[in-house]
Fold these 3 entries.
Entry 1:
Amino acid sequence: MNIKAVGIAAALLMASGSAFAQSSTVTGAAGGAATGAVVGGPVGAAVGGIVGGVAGSVIDPPPQKVVTYVQQAPAPKTRVVVKEKVVVGQPLPETVVVTPIPDEPKYSYAIVNDERVIVEPSSRKVIQVIQ
């Protein structure tokens, strides 16, 4: 692929990304490419698109019925407190018990530091913090 083609692709991604950014947060390949283009030009756009595509596809928001279930789930009698901040994309410590969500094997939840969080069961990565 030549530099001119990469430049055109970056320009197209930036244009679509900036238009999309007006209505919501730009993530995934378009957001990564737009950010990469600003930082590193055409080569940055290519690298940012790849990184953004991988990162954007890993953490998709859970369905609304999962969020509702976690919001309404009864809190455990014992309070779980950890020193680490609960961060989307980072795994919960092994000391935190994650509870499966019925009929939704892709999701589990925990209540940590008085925050309800939805996690991916196998990796324990936080998908969403419920406000």
Note: The chain has two domains: 3-58, 64-130.
Entry 2:
Amino acid sequence: MLKGKVNPARAHFGPQPMFSKEEEAHLVEHINTMAECGYGYGRAEGVTMASEYAVYLEKRTHPLLLKWFRGFMLRWTKLKVFKPRGLELQRTKAINMESVTRYYTELGSILDKYCLKNKPERVYNIDEKGLSTSHTPY
């Protein structure tokens, strides 16, 4: 009998997460960076992105399920899923000198990070006209 010999804080039930803590932290960093740039992932998009990452790391050959996403969100409680708001409200709140300066600062750092400043053919400019602004995540 193991009475009193198991530390409940260290006990794990079920399978271990597929990604290591460092790999999941990388996903969280990417999600936060994209959110700061104005693009938040919905549940399905998050699962798709994580599936592609798992294939890249050769940990998976088929897509992850929303069940994985629920476990991921339980492990990373600082992440939140919000229902998107209408574009006009977002635009009204976003148009100020601080947010415009932050946008171009972030854009510059992303262009530097991925060595894109001298590769304009790899940078695309789009607007909301061709994008759905009433997206509702699952």
Note: The CA atoms of residues 52 and 58 lie 10 Å apart.
Entry 3:
Amino acid sequence: MAIKTVKVESKLDSKFKIESTVSGHQVIVDQPAAAGGNGEGPTPLEYLFVALAGCIGSVGRIIAMQKRMAVNGMTISVEGDLNADGLLGKPTVDPVGFKEIRVSVDVDADMTAEEKAAFVHEMDSRCPVSWNLLNASSVKVSAV
């Protein structure tokens, strides 16, 4: 079994801007100016969708390489519905997270509709981000 530890170091400034270092890359998370941020980067929720689309696409490329499938590319769309009241501390009966996340994958390949559906299903079943959204991984948050 190959266990890989993924680590991100992040710093929050005096507003909402969070700068993270990931594998030597700088990534910025921010809130829109209308929400008190500077709009210097996507929000955490938008990055969640970027991570999901990126994982599905990456796994798709891995599968295509493993099976020697001619996949020219993919267009992956992710959207979801969120009641923001919970994250703002307002009372709500809705969950704090998304009620539903919808992913559509347009595969650019010479495949039948059934082959594309099977390919997309395999991508989703092998995507760790999708798995973590569907299953309860333990999250341990602590003060240092």
Note: The mean pLDDT is 95.
